[in-house]
Specification:
Blueprint: H1 2-45, E1 48-50, E2 63-65, E3 69-74, E4 84-85, E5 96-101, E6 106-111
Parallel strand pairs: 3-4
Antiparallel strand pairs: 1-2, 3-5, 5-6
Length: 116
Amino acid sequence: MDKAKEEHRKMMEEVEREKAEFEARVAAQREKDRKKEDKEALLKTEPQIRNINADPSMSGMVRHPMKQGKNTVGKKVGDWKPNIKVSGAGIAKEQCNMEYDPDTRKTVIHPNSEDL
């Protein structure tokens, strides 16, 4: 009888662990969906950066909303993440910074320190 109770207890612990893992995955997906919805809302109201491609069907496929103040463009390195990630040969960690002023609706682009 004690063996059956122990097996039942272990099974219930496993069920609770799986339930907690599932709920964590659901919460993570909801957070990801919320961030995507927030970005889509910004794209409707704020200026944005879009890609340009020789193939017209590929142009405008990548869009990044400009946030007020400093927007860093560059390559993700370690724990450091730019606001707008780009990759490729010759792309620096901090490729450039763009200062966006929503009052004047102007953006000033500053090259990275290596280009000065």
